Amino acid sequence: MSGPDDELTLIEKRLFKLAPAKFRKIVAVLEDRRAEFGARGPVETLMSKMRPRLVRMRLARKLTLQRVFCRAFEELLTDAADPQGMGTRISRQSIDPCWRLFVDKADVRRLQKFAANLRACGEEDTRRIERLGRQLWAYGAEVLEAALRPARRGDVVPGLGDLSERAYRDLLFIGDYLQVADVMQELKRRLGPRPLKRATDEHIDAIVTALEAVNEVDRQHQHVIIDLLLVWLKQPSDIVAIVDRIAAAARAEIDEASLTLASESLVEDIETKLRSAAEFAAQHAHDRAGTVRQLRGCVSDLLGAHGAFQNRSSVTAMRRLEHIRGKVAGLVEGHILKDADQRILGVLPAAQAAADQVLSNVMPVVMLTEPLDAARVEAAEDQAIALRLCVKYAEELGLKAEFFDTIEALGRTIEDRARWAARRIQIAALDEAARAAVAGHFYIAVRMLELVCGSDRADNLRRQLLVAA
């Protein structure tokens, strides 16, 4: 005999097979039958099962009190069951248990009034809905603070014990957020659409204003601003420069906890980029320039973090930055510096050492007249580009001497081989095709010199050899 769970699974499977139009109708019916603000019962269970398809179809959902409640922090919501990484994110799985706790602790008549006012709003009544939302958030902050205050003292609070550890942490954050929800709504309005590509002076002014407004409520809620910025910025690493500018502009200082949150969030972002670069290097061993491009953002953020936080960041964050620096240096040594000379010089035939002068003149010419291996040349160019891309970071990574020695040795060797190839062009026995092939090797050598040592040095060599020819 099948039980309720089996029947629910069967209904779920059938719902996912329905045509979109019929699925929409069923969603509309279920929305009408949902509890007004209790978020309980079989309808809620079924709706949760339908959520993947609802998200995929992007259906317009009926506005409920719970959804208005979540609008305050909707940008921080994530599907992850236990969000990790930068800043605080709220798991969607925590919404229902947190909402139920709020409903249990709230005054029923107040909630009924909120629900009645929401039903009276049309879809276009954005201002009325926004005003209702602000009232609901303020009341939510009041109810949750009253529930959490004894829990923070260590007292047992009915209902809190039923929450998972993740849901409880999210509840604490939601409680903090709702305390300053009005401030955050205004900040979001002034920041403009996500993602924010670059923080202008107007944006900094908006952040400073929000910071000072939050301080008037509770300085310990400053972390909410940092958390919001981390999801608003196109490049979360920009938080470094922004915090620097805020610290200079704000009348009220940023507390140490918020500074630590910003710095450690950035460190987590850099660590994520480093893992991505390491995975790329392992999977694309021949694309060394690509590896450097993967590393470039990581190194730039690393250097920026050191500069911005070295005098006021947490010891833990700075220790992690030093660890990252070592990892980046190791990746550069292993994938960019190691065997760089072999990969670059391998496409430039060298004079053969031989006792017989005739052989030493003939054999290299035979090699030079062979067609260029395009794949090998491309790989050598990629290696040379990778070297040049890394030079600007060499000193900061503690690799200045290694890069200097490698580039200087390569430059001298490439020049020697270019000169040798130029002399071979003048051999009278060569036909036009062979002479063109030898010239091709000469220009490849000049090209490699340009990539490794710069265009000025390559141009000088080219002019010298062409004049001599």
Question: What would the keywords be for this entry?
Answer:
mainly alpha; 469 residues; two-stranded parallel sheet; 3 domains; 21 helices
Task: Sum this structure up briefly.
With 469 residues, the chain is mainly alpha-helical. The chain has helices spanning 4-17, 20-33, 42-57, 65-71, 95-105, 108-119, 126-152, 165-179, 181-191, 201-217, 222-232, 239-249, 256-283, 288-309, 315-337, 340-345, 357-368, 374-394, 400-425, 432-453, 455-468, and strands at 77-78, 90-91. The chain has three domains: 15-255, no CATH class; 262-337; 350-468.
Beta-strand portion reads under 5%
Work out the radius of gyration: 32 Å
Number of strands: 2
Q: In which range does the helix fraction lie? A: over 70%
Note poorly predicted spans: 353-367
Separation, N- and C-terminal Cα atoms: 95 Å
Biggest pleated sheet: 2 strands, parallel
Structural domain count: 3
**Secondary-structure-derived class:** mainly alpha
**How would you state the average pLDDT, rounded?**
79
Order of helices and strands: HHHHEEHHHHHHHHHHHHHHHHH
The spatial strand order of the largest sheet comes to 1-2
Task: Write structural notes for this entry.
The protein has 469 residues and is mostly helical. The chain folds into three domains: 15-255, no CATH class; 262-337; 350-468. Helices cover 72% and strands 1% of the residues. The protein is built from 21 helices and two strands. It has helices at 4-17, 20-33, 42-57, 65-71, 95-105, 108-119, 126-152, 165-179, 181-191, 201-217, 222-232, 239-249, 256-283, 288-309, 315-337, 340-345, 357-368, 374-394, 400-425, 432-453, 455-468; strands at residues 77-78, 90-91. It has a two-stranded parallel ribbon with strand order 1-2. Helix 13 (256-283) runs parallel beside helix 15 (315-337). It is elongated, with a radius of gyration of 32 Å. The termini are far apart. Residues 353-367 have low confidence and may be disordered.
